[in-house]
């Protein structure tokens, strides 16, 4: 199991929250955010996404897929100590740099040399690259693929599955094995960027499942009227047999 | 104990140099252009900002038919407004609004990552991505809300929405009392990103 899958409800973390309202707390964070968005907008999978972007005609050297699934898989794979230690965009910088090294776009030696003597970058201003990135931001990458084929109607009692954890998951760990009620069935079936190994990837229905906090946390639930809602792919739901 | 949690003294400077080196190499190798990152940032600084969400909230406060529609068909309701192109773009493909009422307070979280409705709220503030907030808000939302200044009546129901699927959620906060004569601009000043995620109420900025 991976701690990052079980963050929801984890106890013992610092109390007395203060809200850091800035989006970026250091200027350099903006650059890694921009690089990430560019990778998302140039990802080869966009050729088959909706809309079908003319990605093969864009004159970028980027020839890989890069989606949220890649960034999330990296974050979920981190040493939990490091996950808590490093700030959000520090994690992005580490993960994205490693991706470019692993895929052979840059080498550690090149990075070290650049860090040592940064000169202004010279590149070809290929407008098509920037146009594609902005087009992705405006048009998006919807995972909706089909009309819905739901197996669970609204009101169904369901037990949340407990599949073996793989590299990546969209199932919050605190819901594994818990029971809830289908509150809403979304229109359409929804794919996920990748096959996570724990059941999602191919188009399938998504549900909102309503949980009583006491059914999740037992006596550790807060007093007072509360409900928790999670959006869950159908692969994460199992039926509860009616007692006859 | 080791120095697992010790940071190097040049923590920020080192990261700044590393990201600059990476960006420069990606430009030289033709992955991106010298303008790509700046254009992305400009998009979020000028078009996809919380101003869009504020306009949606104020329309919900002042137009009952819109208020009814925006929680049922959020993309359809938003499409009727004169907002920048791209409200259904990246991280807005499936927007979903939930509305606070006198007896119900909504709170949006993402315990697995940092799902956030970019087109209407811009980029997430740091608190939303904070592991401590994400872990605690799932189990003890009432206590977390009280700590950040939202003291709800004991009989107000709290609905926590964990963004683990395709939707990107945001909250229509309640319109503060005593604002009957306010113009739309005055009303917009009462709406913050925090209120549109549920960790604040609408009201004068504190």
Automatic annotation (TrEMBL), chain B:
EC number: 4.2.1.84
Catalyzed reactions: an aliphatic primary amide = an aliphatic nitrile + H2O
Pfam families reported for this sequence: NHase_alpha
InterPro entries cross-referenced by the UniProt entry: CN_Hdrase_a/SCN_Hdrase_g_sf, CN_Hdrtase_a/SCN_Hdrlase_g, CN_Hdrtase_asu/SCN_Hdrlase_gsu, Nitrile_hydratase_asu
Domain Nitrile hydratase alpha/Thiocyanate hydrolase gamma: 15-200
UniProt key word Iron: yes
Keyword Lyase: yes
Enzyme class: lyase
One GO MF term attached to the UniProt entry: nitrile hydratase activity
Residues noted as binding Fe(3+) in the record, renumbered to the chain: 110, 113-115
Keywords of the record: Iron, Lyase, Metal-binding
Family the UniProt entry places it in: Belongs to the nitrile hydratase subunit alpha family.
Protein name: nitrile hydratase
Organism listed in the record: Mycolicibacterium hodleri
Record lineage: Bacteria, Bacillati, Actinomycetota, Actinomycetes, Mycobacteriales
Gene name of the encoded protein: nthA
